[in-house]
């Protein structure tokens, strides 16, 4: 039995490039896979010369820095930034569910409860951004993505502003954003508070979710601006009285009397079925890679290359690949502990499953099984909630299996500690090749 592989593959550093997700004037977004961890990501690729030619350096640096600063479950996560001689690569969390805008365009307006759920997530994220001194300034359904579980994620911080950009009068003075979603005070060119203008945009989004159309929509820009400044719109008949009252408080043309986020969080309509976000503070933010991308230093450049992989016998693949060794978990890559590992076993799948269950239960984990997959759920809260682990058994040959163990929730360092204890109960099922037996003498691992 041999492993089938593609004829060639394109690699950018440690990422294998896949299909194109989207393409614009200045950027292309591709699916990619981290060949070290197996994690799927999205990579935004920008042409370095175009960025310089169009004087977009500061805008892109602001977008990257903002996304690194905001660590929230309802904001797209930025993983790292890289550059080659000709390209800039922004590595992002991969989100599979598409734009919230597409959901409305394809299926029509949402129910009030559905709209409220998305709006709650949006406000959670915007509130967190504001607490970090970041104002988005271009909130609209097209910039709200959904993951495969329907969780909302804010993207595109290209027009965002930091609190440090506020002038002495305490206001921002750059008019930006999409006209239909822009607050009246942004249009009057007298300065505005980034917090209250973002709240207005959130109100327009909520209206669109529930109505299926915009509250302010005119082909003539001057007519559109006048309607926005007067908050001249109508409610469809299906809006409940409570929803109408709530939206009117958001789409108040006077920013001084407009409802604030703390008030929104306590509003009777808003708090129905409310679930606070589940997250913990991340490690300190490092912006060194952002600066390195835009300087002329060659030491930080990644290589773009094409490789023709070697097809080998499955047994050779297992015995030679370090990624299938248990010690792989404890290697640190770029200062981060890995979130998954694999090992090989010559035992029957049922025996492997039973051994995993035996090893997990004494450590305080609840086990759910099905179709040679197991989910291990910790019964205690850690730094980032309960630790959860997924395991799956793959058949490579009738007498050889690969077992994948990966963190699906909780803190990575807690996963590392868990696995050190967990792996001691797996000694009897791990396939001990001659190579990793010799390595264990030096590393002190379980082989």
Poorly predicted runs are: 1-6, 162-176, 322-337, 438-447
* CATH homologous superfamily classification of the largest domain: Transferase(Phosphotransferase) domain 1
Topology, number of strands: 18
Overall average pLDDT: 77
Number of helices: 14
Separation of the first and last Cα atoms: 26 Å
Helix/strand class? alpha+beta
Quickly name the level 1 CATH class of the largest domain.
Mainly Alpha
The proportion of strand residues reads: 15-25%
CATH architectural category of the largest domain: Orthogonal Bundle
Residues in helix, %: 25-40%
Task: Report the sheet with the most strands, covering strand number, pairing sense and barrel closure.
Answer: 7 strands, antiparallel
Quickly count the domains: 3
Write down the Rg: 25 Å
Widest beta sheet: strand line-up? 5-6-4-3-2-1-11
Shape: globular
- CATH topology name of the largest domain: Transferase(Phosphotransferase), domain 1
What does the model show?
The protein folds into 3 domains: 9-94, Phosphorylase Kinase, domain 1 (2-Layer Sandwich), CATH 3.30.200.20; 100-264, Transferase(Phosphotransferase), domain 1; 313-443, 2-Layer Sandwich (TATA-Binding Protein). The chain is built from 14 helices and 18 strands. The protein has 447 residues and is of the alpha+beta class. Helices cover 31% and strands 23% of the residues. The two termini are 26 Å apart. A hairpin with a 2-residue loop joins strand 16 and strand 17 (385-397). A 7-stranded antiparallel sheet has the order 5-6-4-3-2-1-11. The protein has a 5-stranded antiparallel sheet with strand order 14-18-17-16-15.
């Amino acid at each position: 039995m041999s492993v089938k592989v593609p004829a060639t593959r394109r690699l950018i550093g440690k990422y294998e490039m896949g299909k194109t997700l989207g393409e614009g004037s200045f950027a292309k977004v591709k699916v990619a896979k981290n060949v070290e961890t197996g994690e799927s990501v999205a990579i935004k690729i920008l042409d370095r010369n175009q960025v310089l030619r169009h004087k977009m350096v500061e805008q892109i640096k602001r977008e990257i820095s903002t996304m690194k600063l905001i660590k929230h479950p309802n904001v797209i996560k930025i993983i790292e930034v890289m550059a080659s001689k000709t390209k800039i690569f922004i590595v992002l969390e991969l989100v599979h569910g598409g734009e919230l805008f597409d959901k409305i365009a394809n299926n029509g307006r949402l129910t009030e409860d559905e709209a409220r759920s998305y709006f709650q997530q949006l406000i959670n994220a915007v509130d967190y951004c504001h607490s970090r001194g970041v104002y988005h300034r271009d909130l609209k359904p097209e910039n709200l993505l959904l993951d495969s579980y329907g969780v909302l994620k804010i993207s595109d911080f290209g027009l965002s502003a930091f609190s440090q950009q506020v002038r002495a009068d305490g206001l921002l003075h750059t008019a930006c954003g999409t006209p239909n979603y822009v607050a009246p005070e942004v249009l009057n060119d007298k300065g505005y508070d980034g917090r209250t203008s973002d709240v207005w945009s959130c109100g327009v989004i909520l209206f669109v979710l529930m109505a299926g159309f915009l509250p302010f929509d005119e082909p003539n820009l001057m007519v559109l601006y006048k309607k926005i400044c007067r908050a001249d719109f109508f409610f469809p008949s299906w809006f409940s009285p409570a929803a109408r009252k709530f939206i009117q408080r958001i789409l108040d043309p006077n920013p001084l009397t407009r409802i604030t986020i703390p008030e929104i969080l306590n509003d009777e309509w808003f708090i129905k079925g409310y679930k606070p976000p589940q997250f913990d503070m991340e490690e300190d933010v490092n912006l060194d890679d952002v600066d390195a991308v835009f300087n002329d230093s060659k030491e930080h450049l990644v290589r773009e290359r094409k490789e023709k992989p070697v097809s080998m016998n499955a047994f050779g693949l297992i015995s030679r690949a370090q990624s299938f060794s248990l010690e792989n978990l404890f290697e640190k890559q770029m200062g981060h502990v890995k979130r998954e590992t694999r090992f090989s076993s010559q035992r029957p799948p049922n025996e492997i499953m039973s051994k995993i269950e035996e090893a997990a239960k004494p450590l305080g984990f609840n086990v759910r099984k099905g179709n040679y997959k197991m989910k291990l759920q910790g019964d205690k809260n850690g730094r980032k909630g309960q630790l959860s682990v997924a395991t799956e058994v793959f058949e490579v040959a009738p007498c050889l299996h690969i077992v994948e163990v990966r963190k699906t929730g909780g803190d990575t360092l807690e996963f590392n500690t868990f696995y050190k204890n967990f792996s001691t109960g797996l000694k009897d099922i791990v396939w001990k090749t001659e190579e990793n037996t010799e390595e264990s003498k030096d590393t002190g691992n379980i082989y």
